[in-house]
Amino acid sequence: MLQLRQNQSLQQRLTPQQVQYLKLLQLPILALEQRIKSEIEENPMLEESSDEEERQEQAAEETVAEPVEEPVLEVEAVGEGAEEPVAPELAEAQRDLQRAREREERMERERSAEDSSEYSFEDYMNDDTEGFKTPTSRDMDEDREEAPHAATESFLESLYSQIAMLNLPDRYRALAEEIVGSIDEDGYLRVPLEQIARDAGVVYGDEYTLAETEAVLHKIQKLDPAGVAARDLRECLAVQLEVMPNHNPIREVARKIIHDCFEDFVNKRFTALSRHLGTDVQGLKPAIDLIQHLNPKPGASIGDLSESTKYITADFYIERTADGKGFTITLNERGVPPLRVNAAYKDLIRKQAPEHGKSLTPEAKDFIKKKFEAAKFFIMAIYQRRETMMRVMQSIVNHQRGFFEGGEKFLKPLIYKTIAEDIGMDISTICRVVNGKYCQTDFGVFELKYFFSEAIPTHAGTGGENGDGEAVANKVVKYRIKDIIDGESGTEPMSDEKIVQLLNAEGFDVARRTVAKYREQMNIPVARLRKRLV
What we know:
mainly alpha, extended
C-alpha cells in the first residue's frame, strides 16, 4: 500500500564553482598552465593581461567623463519587461546593451554579405583582426617554444631492424618476428617454444619444428642487447658471457659458475662454490664481479624517451632569508599568466553596437552572462588556489623547521590533520594540495608527501642520540637502518635482530618486523643475500 511520508534530511552539495576550485587545487604547476590555456581558448571573455596593459586601461578610464559600469551590471540589470526607474549610469548601460542586441540581430540577417562595418558576437569570437582577436593556442605559443624531443627507437623496433640484417630466409624471418613479438618488457621469452612454432605455422601457413625454432632463438639471443629472448635469468647471463671475447680468462670461470653452480651463486654460498671449482674464496671474486656487472633485464636497456624520462617542476621554492633566521616561500607561477575579463568585451557593447534595431536574442544574452560568470569564477578560483597553497606550505615549513635548517635527520612526525587544524581547513583540502606537488629546498627537490610520516617513539635513559623520549619520524629510522647496512661488513652482514639491538641502544623503540618492513621498502635484501667477497 502506497503511503505519503515527510522526512527531514541534511545534505551537503558542492556548487560548480566549488568543484572547479577543488579541481584547480589538485593540479600541479604544469597541468595548471595547460588548464588556463584551455580555458582561455574556450571562453572569449577571458584573456591574459600585463602590468603595462593594466596601467594603460586605468589611464584611459580616468579620461572618461562619465563612469561606465562593469559588464556584470549590464547583464544583470536588463530584465524582460522591467518598468521600475533606474539610475542614470545603469540606464546608459542598458541602452548600450540594447544597441548590442539590435546589432547582433542585424548581423544574423546580413551574415552572407561580403562587406560589413559592424561586429557581431560571432565576429568577436572568431575574427583575427587587431583589437578583437581572441587568444588562440597559436598566439599563446608564439613566445613559448617547446624543447624538441630526440627521435628514439623502441625496443621491439630495434630488434626487428636487426632481424632484417641477419639475411635469414623468408620462412625463418617470419619465425624470428613471431619470437620477438612474444618477448615481454624485461626482454624475456615467457611463451613456450612449442606454442611459438605452432602459432607461427598457423599465421604464416608453414610448419616449423622445435629444432628450427630453437636455432632461430639462439640467433636472436645474440642480438643487441645480448641475452634478449632468454627464457630465464640463468640463460640470459650465460648468453652474455658467451658473446664476450675469448681472450678474457675470467669468463671461463664465470661460465662454470653459471652452468654448474648457479644455485650456490644465487644464494651466496661462496664456500660451496670454491670447493666445487677447486679454488679459494678470494679467487672467485673477479668472476663474481664480472657476473654481477651483466644485465639481468636486457629489455630495460632500450626504451622510449617519453616513458623513461620524467621531469619534475617544483611548485614551491624554499630559501633562507638574508639573516638566516627565517624562510622565504615562493609559489612557482612563472608560466601562469595574469588573467582578466577581455577588454574588447566592453568596447563591443559600448562602442560597436548600432544606434537602432531589435533587441539581442535571449540565446545571445544567455551566452554573454554564462561566459562572463565563468571567467569571473575562474579568476577567483586561481586566486583562491594561490592563497590556499601558500597557507599549506607555510604551515609545513613551520612544523618541519628542523628539516629545512638541518636536513633529513631532523624530520619530525607529521600528519594531515595537524596541518588542517593549524590553518582551519579540511583534511581533504590538504590532501589535494599535497598530492603531486613538489618543493625545491637547499637539500634537493621533495614531494610534499615526503614531509608527512608516522611517529616512532623513543625512550630516554639509554645515552643514545635519540634517547630523549620524543617521537621521531619513521623516515629518520629508515635512514638510520640504511646507514647501518651501508657500514656493515661485507663478509658478515647484520641480521634484522642485530639492527634492532643497535637501534634500541640509540633510543629507537622498534621491533624486528618493523626493521624488516622498512628494509623491504628500501629494496634492501636480507643479510644472507647481502654477503659479498671483499
